[in-house]
Amino acid sequence: MTTAVVTGTGVVAPNGLGTEEFWSATLRGENAITPIDRYDTALFPSRLAGQVRDFEAAGHLPSRLLPQTDRMTRFALTAADWALADAALDTGEADRTGLGVVMAAGAGGFDFGQKELQNLWGKGPDHVSAYMSFAWFYAVNTGQISIRHDLRGPTGVLVAEQAGGVDAIAQARRALRGGARAVLTGGMESSLCPYGMAARIAAGRLSTRDDPRRAYLPFDPDADGHVPGEGGAVLVLEDESRARARGATVLGEIAGYGTAFDPPPNSGRPGNLGRAAELALTDAGLTTDDVDVVFADADGSAERDSAEAETLVRLFGPYGVPVTAPKTMIGRLCSGGAPLDVVLALLALREGVIPPTTGVTPGHPLDLVRDRPRPFDGTTALVLARGNNGFNSALVLRGRGKDLK
Length: 405
Hints:
The chain has about 400 residues and is of the alpha/beta class. It folds into two domains: about 5-245, Peroxisomal Thiolase, Chain A, domain 1 (3-Layer(aba) Sandwich); about 255-400, Thiolase/Chalcone synthase (Peroxisomal Thiolase, Chain A, domain 1, 3-Layer(aba) Sandwich), CATH 3.40.47.10. It contains eleven helices and 16 strands. Strands 1, 2, 5, 6, 7, 8, 9, 10, 11, 13, 15 and 16 form a twelve-stranded mixed beta sheet that branches. Strands 3-4 form a two-stranded antiparallel ribbon. Strands 12-14 form a two-stranded antiparallel ribbon. Helix 2 (about 70-85) crosses helix 5 (about 140-150) and helix 6 (about 165-175) packs across helix 11 (about 335-350). The longest helix has 17 residues, at about 70-85. It is globular and about 60 Å long. The two termini are about 20 Å apart.
Protein backbone atom coordinates (compact mmCIF):
# COMPACT_ATOMS: atom_id res chain seq x y z
CA MET A 1 0.00 0.00 0.00
CA THR A 2 1.34 3.41 -0.98
CA THR A 3 2.15 5.69 1.96
CA ALA A 4 1.40 9.32 1.03
CA VAL A 5 3.68 11.85 2.67
CA VAL A 6 4.01 15.63 2.50
CA THR A 7 7.39 16.82 1.28
CA GLY A 8 6.69 20.48 0.53
CA THR A 9 4.29 23.28 1.47
CA GLY A 10 3.48 26.71 0.10
CA VAL A 11 1.25 29.14 2.00
CA VAL A 12 -0.50 32.39 1.17
CA ALA A 13 -2.47 33.50 4.24
CA PRO A 14 -3.77 36.72 5.79
CA ASN A 15 -1.18 36.47 8.56
CA GLY A 16 1.80 35.39 6.47
CA LEU A 17 3.28 34.80 3.05
CA GLY A 18 5.23 31.54 3.06
CA THR A 19 5.02 28.63 5.47
CA GLU A 20 7.49 29.86 8.07
CA GLU A 21 6.02 33.37 8.25
CA PHE A 22 2.52 31.89 8.58
CA TRP A 23 3.64 29.48 11.31
CA SER A 24 5.45 32.16 13.30
CA ALA A 25 2.54 34.62 13.11
CA THR A 26 0.09 31.92 14.16
CA LEU A 27 2.18 30.97 17.19
CA ARG A 28 2.34 34.66 18.13
CA GLY A 29 -1.46 34.84 17.97
CA GLU A 30 -1.50 37.68 15.46
CA ASN A 31 -5.04 38.61 14.45
CA ALA A 32 -5.21 39.37 10.72
CA ILE A 33 -8.96 40.07 10.65
CA THR A 34 -9.52 43.71 9.67
CA PRO A 35 -12.16 45.92 8.01
CA ILE A 36 -12.39 45.30 4.26
CA ASP A 37 -10.66 48.22 2.55
CA ARG A 38 -10.89 47.36 -1.17
CA TYR A 39 -14.29 49.00 -1.67
CA ASP A 40 -16.97 50.92 0.21
CA THR A 41 -18.64 48.44 2.57
CA ALA A 42 -21.23 50.86 3.98
CA LEU A 43 -24.15 48.95 2.43
CA PHE A 44 -22.87 45.53 3.55
CA PRO A 45 -23.93 44.10 6.94
CA SER A 46 -20.63 42.17 7.19
CA ARG A 47 -17.54 44.33 6.80
CA LEU A 48 -14.62 42.31 8.19
CA ALA A 49 -12.36 39.75 6.55
CA GLY A 50 -9.00 38.05 6.77
CA GLN A 51 -7.24 39.83 3.90
CA VAL A 52 -3.88 38.88 2.42
CA ARG A 53 -1.55 41.87 2.67
CA ASP A 54 1.70 42.75 0.91
CA PHE A 55 1.19 40.29 -1.93
CA GLU A 56 2.45 41.79 -5.18
CA ALA A 57 1.75 39.33 -7.96
CA ALA A 58 4.24 40.99 -10.31
CA GLY A 59 7.01 40.10 -7.88
CA HIS A 60 6.16 36.39 -8.01
CA LEU A 61 4.79 35.63 -11.48
CA PRO A 62 5.63 36.38 -15.12
CA SER A 63 3.89 39.46 -16.51
CA ARG A 64 2.15 37.39 -19.19
CA LEU A 65 0.14 35.58 -16.51
CA LEU A 66 -1.23 38.68 -14.80
CA PRO A 67 -3.91 39.69 -17.34
CA GLN A 68 -5.34 36.17 -17.46
CA THR A 69 -5.52 35.33 -13.75
CA ASP A 70 -7.78 36.11 -10.83
CA ARG A 71 -6.30 36.99 -7.46
CA MET A 72 -6.91 33.47 -6.12
CA THR A 73 -5.07 31.93 -9.07
CA ARG A 74 -2.10 34.22 -8.51
CA PHE A 75 -2.06 33.01 -4.91
CA ALA A 76 -2.26 29.39 -6.07
CA LEU A 77 0.51 29.68 -8.65
CA THR A 78 2.81 31.36 -6.15
CA ALA A 79 2.08 28.83 -3.41
CA ALA A 80 2.68 25.98 -5.87
CA ASP A 81 6.07 27.46 -6.78
CA TRP A 82 6.97 27.67 -3.11
CA ALA A 83 5.76 24.14 -2.38
CA LEU A 84 7.81 22.66 -5.22
CA ALA A 85 10.89 24.58 -4.07
CA ASP A 86 10.33 23.42 -0.49
CA ALA A 87 10.09 19.82 -1.69
CA ALA A 88 13.13 20.26 -3.94
CA LEU A 89 11.12 18.37 -6.54
CA ASP A 90 12.40 18.50 -10.12
CA THR A 91 9.40 18.64 -12.47
CA GLY A 92 11.59 18.76 -15.57
CA GLU A 93 11.90 15.00 -15.93
CA ALA A 94 11.12 13.42 -19.30
CA ASP A 95 7.98 11.60 -18.12
CA ARG A 96 5.66 14.17 -16.62
CA THR A 97 2.62 11.90 -16.75
CA GLY A 98 3.41 10.85 -13.19
CA LEU A 99 3.09 14.41 -11.87
CA GLY A 100 -0.44 15.62 -11.11
CA VAL A 101 -2.49 18.47 -9.63
CA VAL A 102 -5.65 18.12 -7.53
CA MET A 103 -6.97 21.35 -6.03
CA ALA A 104 -10.13 22.44 -4.23
CA ALA A 105 -12.16 25.58 -4.83
CA GLY A 106 -15.47 26.69 -3.43
CA ALA A 107 -16.07 29.82 -5.46
CA GLY A 108 -13.75 30.49 -8.39
CA GLY A 109 -12.36 33.73 -9.75
CA PHE A 110 -15.09 35.99 -8.40
CA ASP A 111 -13.00 39.16 -8.47
CA PHE A 112 -12.04 38.66 -12.12
CA GLY A 113 -15.62 37.75 -13.00
CA GLN A 114 -17.10 40.80 -11.32
CA LYS A 115 -14.77 43.18 -13.17
CA GLU A 116 -15.57 41.64 -16.54
CA LEU A 117 -19.31 41.68 -15.89
CA GLN A 118 -19.01 45.35 -14.99
CA ASN A 119 -17.22 45.91 -18.29
CA LEU A 120 -19.97 44.02 -20.12
CA TRP A 121 -22.81 46.07 -18.71
CA GLY A 122 -20.93 49.38 -18.49
CA LYS A 123 -18.94 49.39 -21.75
CA GLY A 124 -20.21 46.53 -23.88
CA PRO A 125 -19.08 43.04 -24.94
CA ASP A 126 -16.01 44.29 -26.80
CA HIS A 127 -14.54 45.25 -23.44
CA VAL A 128 -14.82 41.78 -21.89
CA SER A 129 -11.50 39.94 -21.62
CA ALA A 130 -11.10 36.74 -23.61
CA TYR A 131 -9.64 35.26 -20.43
CA MET A 132 -13.09 35.50 -18.83
CA SER A 133 -13.80 32.14 -20.45
CA PHE A 134 -11.70 30.40 -17.80
CA ALA A 135 -10.39 32.85 -15.20
CA TRP A 136 -13.65 32.77 -13.22
CA PHE A 137 -13.92 28.96 -13.24
CA TYR A 138 -13.39 27.02 -10.01
CA ALA A 139 -11.14 24.52 -11.84
CA VAL A 140 -8.78 27.21 -13.11
CA ASN A 141 -6.17 26.85 -10.35
CA THR A 142 -5.68 23.18 -11.23
CA GLY A 143 -5.30 24.04 -14.89
CA GLN A 144 -2.96 26.97 -14.46
CA ILE A 145 -0.64 25.11 -12.08
CA SER A 146 -0.57 22.15 -14.46
CA ILE A 147 0.26 24.37 -17.44
CA ARG A 148 2.90 26.41 -15.62
CA HIS A 149 4.88 23.32 -14.58
CA ASP A 150 3.90 21.07 -17.50
CA LEU A 151 2.37 18.48 -15.19
CA ARG A 152 0.58 15.87 -17.28
CA GLY A 153 -0.51 13.36 -14.68
CA PRO A 154 -3.83 12.98 -12.80
CA THR A 155 -5.68 16.26 -12.33
CA GLY A 156 -8.94 17.29 -10.74
CA VAL A 157 -10.87 19.83 -8.71
CA LEU A 158 -13.04 19.21 -5.62
CA VAL A 159 -15.94 21.55 -4.83
CA ALA A 160 -17.26 21.04 -1.30
CA GLU A 161 -16.75 24.46 0.34
CA GLN A 162 -14.60 24.17 3.51
CA ALA A 163 -14.53 20.36 3.34
CA GLY A 164 -13.16 20.48 -0.20
CA GLY A 165 -9.65 21.23 1.01
CA VAL A 166 -9.55 17.89 2.82
CA ASP A 167 -11.21 16.06 -0.07
CA ALA A 168 -8.60 17.33 -2.53
CA ILE A 169 -5.74 16.01 -0.39
CA ALA A 170 -7.47 12.65 -0.14
CA GLN A 171 -7.95 12.55 -3.90
CA ALA A 172 -4.25 13.31 -4.35
CA ARG A 173 -3.47 10.34 -2.12
CA ARG A 174 -5.67 8.17 -4.34
CA ALA A 175 -3.70 9.36 -7.37
CA LEU A 176 -0.46 8.26 -5.70
CA ARG A 177 -1.97 4.86 -5.01
CA GLY A 178 -2.88 4.72 -8.68
CA GLY A 179 0.76 5.14 -9.69
CA ALA A 180 1.38 8.90 -9.73
CA ARG A 181 4.86 9.94 -8.62
CA ALA A 182 3.90 13.25 -7.00
CA VAL A 183 0.77 15.41 -6.78
CA LEU A 184 0.34 19.08 -5.93
CA THR A 185 -2.79 19.52 -3.87
CA GLY A 186 -4.62 21.84 -1.48
CA GLY A 187 -7.03 24.75 -1.88
CA MET A 188 -6.96 28.48 -2.54
CA GLU A 189 -9.69 31.11 -2.37
CA SER A 190 -10.24 34.85 -2.79
CA SER A 191 -13.84 36.02 -3.03
CA LEU A 192 -13.86 39.16 -0.90
CA CYS A 193 -15.06 41.41 -3.74
CA PRO A 194 -18.61 42.87 -3.49
CA TYR A 195 -20.02 40.07 -5.65
CA GLY A 196 -18.38 37.39 -3.53
CA MET A 197 -19.38 38.99 -0.25
CA ALA A 198 -22.98 39.36 -1.41
CA ALA A 199 -23.07 35.62 -2.07
CA ARG A 200 -21.61 34.86 1.35
CA ILE A 201 -23.95 37.24 3.14
CA ALA A 202 -26.94 35.60 1.47
CA ALA A 203 -26.03 32.33 3.20
CA GLY A 204 -26.71 34.01 6.56
CA ARG A 205 -23.64 32.67 8.35
CA LEU A 206 -21.37 35.73 8.56
CA SER A 207 -20.78 37.81 11.65
CA THR A 208 -22.16 41.35 11.48
CA ARG A 209 -19.89 42.77 14.19
CA ASP A 210 -17.30 45.45 13.49
CA ASP A 211 -14.86 44.61 16.28
CA PRO A 212 -12.25 42.21 14.81
CA ARG A 213 -11.62 40.80 18.28
CA ARG A 214 -15.28 39.85 18.87
CA ALA A 215 -16.50 38.90 15.40
CA TYR A 216 -15.37 35.28 15.04
CA LEU A 217 -15.68 33.32 18.29
CA PRO A 218 -16.18 29.61 17.66
CA PHE A 219 -17.31 27.56 20.68
CA ASP A 220 -17.96 30.80 22.59
CA PRO A 221 -21.45 31.56 24.01
CA ASP A 222 -21.06 34.99 22.38
CA ALA A 223 -20.52 33.54 18.90
CA ASP A 224 -22.03 35.61 16.09
CA GLY A 225 -21.12 33.67 12.95
CA HIS A 226 -17.82 33.56 11.11
CA VAL A 227 -15.57 36.03 9.31
CA PRO A 228 -14.51 35.17 5.74
CA GLY A 229 -10.91 35.13 4.62
CA GLU A 230 -8.75 34.55 1.57
CA GLY A 231 -5.70 32.44 0.81
CA GLY A 232 -4.83 28.81 1.39
CA ALA A 233 -2.04 26.30 0.91
CA VAL A 234 -0.54 23.99 -1.69
CA LEU A 235 1.17 20.77 -0.60
CA VAL A 236 3.41 18.33 -2.43
CA LEU A 237 2.37 14.72 -1.81
CA GLU A 238 4.65 11.84 -2.75
CA ASP A 239 4.89 8.13 -2.19
CA GLU A 240 7.15 7.73 0.85
CA SER A 241 9.50 5.21 -0.71
CA ARG A 242 10.11 7.45 -3.71
CA ALA A 243 10.49 10.53 -1.53
CA ARG A 244 13.10 8.87 0.65
CA ALA A 245 14.89 7.46 -2.36
CA ARG A 246 15.51 10.95 -3.66
CA GLY A 247 16.51 12.24 -0.20
CA ALA A 248 13.44 14.40 0.40
CA THR A 249 12.54 15.72 3.82
CA VAL A 250 9.26 14.17 4.97
CA LEU A 251 7.07 16.51 6.99
CA GLY A 252 4.37 13.95 7.77
CA GLU A 253 1.98 11.32 6.48
CA ILE A 254 -1.60 11.51 5.23
CA ALA A 255 -2.62 8.49 7.28
CA GLY A 256 -6.42 8.39 7.04
CA TYR A 257 -9.42 10.02 5.40
CA GLY A 258 -13.15 9.87 5.91
CA THR A 259 -16.17 11.69 4.55
CA ALA A 260 -19.89 11.51 5.30
CA PHE A 261 -22.82 13.61 4.16
CA ASP A 262 -25.40 14.96 6.60
CA PRO A 263 -29.02 13.80 6.46
CA PRO A 264 -31.59 16.26 5.08
CA PRO A 265 -32.32 19.34 7.21
CA ASN A 266 -35.20 18.96 9.68
CA SER A 267 -34.94 15.17 9.43
CA GLY A 268 -34.34 14.90 13.16
CA ARG A 269 -31.19 12.88 12.56
CA PRO A 270 -27.79 14.11 13.79
CA GLY A 271 -25.02 15.28 11.49
CA ASN A 272 -22.26 12.98 10.33
CA LEU A 273 -19.08 14.84 11.27
CA GLY A 274 -18.34 12.14 13.84
CA ARG A 275 -18.89 9.46 11.22
CA ALA A 276 -16.31 11.14 8.97
CA ALA A 277 -13.81 11.21 11.85
CA GLU A 278 -14.43 7.54 12.66
CA LEU A 279 -13.93 6.55 9.03
CA ALA A 280 -10.67 8.51 8.89
CA LEU A 281 -9.37 6.80 12.02
CA THR A 282 -10.37 3.38 10.71
CA ASP A 283 -8.62 4.14 7.42
CA ALA A 284 -5.49 5.02 9.41
CA GLY A 285 -5.74 1.87 11.53
CA LEU A 286 -6.11 3.97 14.68
CA THR A 287 -8.63 4.66 17.44
CA THR A 288 -9.64 7.81 19.28
CA ASP A 289 -7.06 6.95 21.95
CA ASP A 290 -4.32 7.58 19.39
CA VAL A 291 -5.34 11.18 18.60
CA ASP A 292 -3.14 13.79 20.26
CA VAL A 293 -4.74 17.00 18.93
CA VAL A 294 -7.82 18.03 16.94
CA PHE A 295 -7.90 20.96 14.53
CA ALA A 296 -11.60 21.82 14.65
CA ASP A 297 -13.83 23.05 11.86
CA ALA A 298 -15.05 25.83 14.20
CA ASP A 299 -17.97 27.30 12.28
CA GLY A 300 -18.67 30.17 14.66
CA SER A 301 -22.44 29.66 14.85
CA ALA A 302 -24.16 28.45 18.01
CA GLU A 303 -25.91 25.50 16.34
CA ARG A 304 -22.96 24.17 14.36
CA ASP A 305 -20.47 24.77 17.18
CA SER A 306 -22.69 22.83 19.55
CA ALA A 307 -22.93 19.98 17.06
CA GLU A 308 -19.16 19.83 16.64
CA ALA A 309 -18.54 20.07 20.39
CA GLU A 310 -21.01 17.25 21.03
CA THR A 311 -19.23 15.16 18.40
CA LEU A 312 -15.84 15.75 20.00
CA VAL A 313 -17.14 14.93 23.47
CA ARG A 314 -18.73 11.74 22.17
CA LEU A 315 -15.50 10.69 20.47
CA PHE A 316 -12.96 11.72 23.10
CA GLY A 317 -14.91 12.45 26.28
CA PRO A 318 -15.24 15.81 28.07
CA TYR A 319 -11.93 17.70 27.88
CA GLY A 320 -10.50 14.50 26.46
CA VAL A 321 -8.06 15.80 23.82
CA PRO A 322 -6.56 19.22 23.04
CA VAL A 323 -8.65 21.09 20.47
CA THR A 324 -7.59 24.16 18.52
CA ALA A 325 -8.94 26.44 15.81
CA PRO A 326 -6.21 28.90 14.72
CA LYS A 327 -8.53 30.14 11.97
CA THR A 328 -9.88 32.60 14.57
CA MET A 329 -6.92 34.79 13.49
CA ILE A 330 -7.59 34.72 9.75
CA GLY A 331 -11.24 33.77 9.20
CA ARG A 332 -12.76 30.84 7.35
CA LEU A 333 -11.07 30.51 3.96
CA CYS A 334 -13.57 28.14 2.35
CA SER A 335 -11.55 25.45 0.53
CA GLY A 336 -8.27 27.12 1.51
CA GLY A 337 -8.88 26.76 5.24
CA ALA A 338 -8.43 23.01 5.72
CA PRO A 339 -5.09 22.83 3.83
CA LEU A 340 -3.80 25.58 6.11
CA ASP A 341 -4.94 23.52 9.11
CA VAL A 342 -3.11 20.52 7.65
CA VAL A 343 0.09 22.57 7.37
CA LEU A 344 -0.30 23.78 10.95
CA ALA A 345 -1.03 20.28 12.22
CA LEU A 346 2.07 18.82 10.56
CA LEU A 347 4.24 21.62 11.93
CA ALA A 348 2.69 21.18 15.38
CA LEU A 349 3.62 17.49 15.32
CA ARG A 350 7.12 18.29 14.13
CA GLU A 351 7.82 21.13 16.56
CA GLY A 352 5.92 19.77 19.58
CA VAL A 353 3.67 22.78 20.05
CA ILE A 354 -0.04 23.34 19.38
CA PRO A 355 -0.95 26.75 17.90
CA PRO A 356 -3.68 28.59 19.80
CA THR A 357 -7.29 29.58 19.34
CA THR A 358 -7.46 33.31 20.08
CA GLY A 359 -10.08 35.45 21.81
CA VAL A 360 -12.47 32.63 22.69
CA THR A 361 -14.00 31.78 26.06
CA PRO A 362 -15.39 28.29 25.46
CA GLY A 363 -18.90 27.39 26.48
CA HIS A 364 -18.45 23.65 25.85
CA PRO A 365 -16.51 20.91 27.70
CA LEU A 366 -13.57 21.07 25.32
CA ASP A 367 -9.87 21.29 26.14
CA LEU A 368 -9.46 24.32 23.89
CA VAL A 369 -5.89 25.57 23.44
CA ARG A 370 -6.47 29.25 24.15
CA ASP A 371 -4.50 32.42 23.37
CA ARG A 372 -0.98 30.97 23.61
CA PRO A 373 0.77 27.91 22.17
CA ARG A 374 0.81 24.73 24.21
CA PRO A 375 3.79 22.34 24.23
CA PHE A 376 2.86 18.71 23.70
CA ASP A 377 4.38 15.39 22.75
CA GLY A 378 2.13 14.11 20.02
CA THR A 379 2.40 12.05 16.87
CA THR A 380 -1.16 12.09 15.48
CA ALA A 381 -3.53 14.91 14.54
CA LEU A 382 -7.14 14.93 13.36
CA VAL A 383 -8.26 17.74 11.02
CA LEU A 384 -12.01 18.32 10.66
CA ALA A 385 -13.76 20.32 7.95
CA ARG A 386 -17.40 20.92 7.10
CA GLY A 387 -18.93 22.51 4.04
CA ASN A 388 -22.21 24.31 3.79
CA ASN A 389 -25.20 22.08 2.96
CA GLY A 390 -23.93 18.90 4.57
CA PHE A 391 -20.32 18.12 3.64
CA ASN A 392 -18.18 16.53 6.39
CA SER A 393 -14.57 15.45 5.92
CA ALA A 394 -11.75 14.38 8.22
CA LEU A 395 -8.04 13.76 7.77
CA VAL A 396 -5.67 11.90 10.09
CA LEU A 397 -2.03 13.00 10.01
CA ARG A 398 1.03 11.32 11.45
CA GLY A 399 4.11 13.37 12.22
CA ARG A 400 7.56 12.14 11.33
CA GLY A 401 9.63 14.08 13.84
CA LYS A 402 11.70 17.22 13.56
CA ASP A 403 14.24 17.21 10.70
CA LEU A 404 13.51 13.54 9.91
CA LYS A 405 14.63 12.63 6.41
